Amino acid sequence: MTRFSHFLAVDWSGAKGARQKGIALAVALAAGGPPVLVAPPDPRGWARSEVLALLLDLPGATLVGLDLGIGLPFADASAFFPGWDASPPDAHGLWALIDALCADDPYLEAGGFVTHQQASRYFRHGKGIEGDRFLLPGATTREGRFRVAEAAQRGQGVRPVSNFNLVGAAQVGKSSLTGMRMLHRLGGRVPVWPVDPLPDSGSVVTEIYTSVAARLGGVKGAATKVRSYEALNDALDALGSPPVTGSGAIDDHSSDALLTAAWLRRVHTDRDLWHPPALTAGVARTEGWTFGAF
Question: Which of 47, 71, 173, 183 minimizes the C-alpha distance to 114?
Answer without folding.
Answer: 173
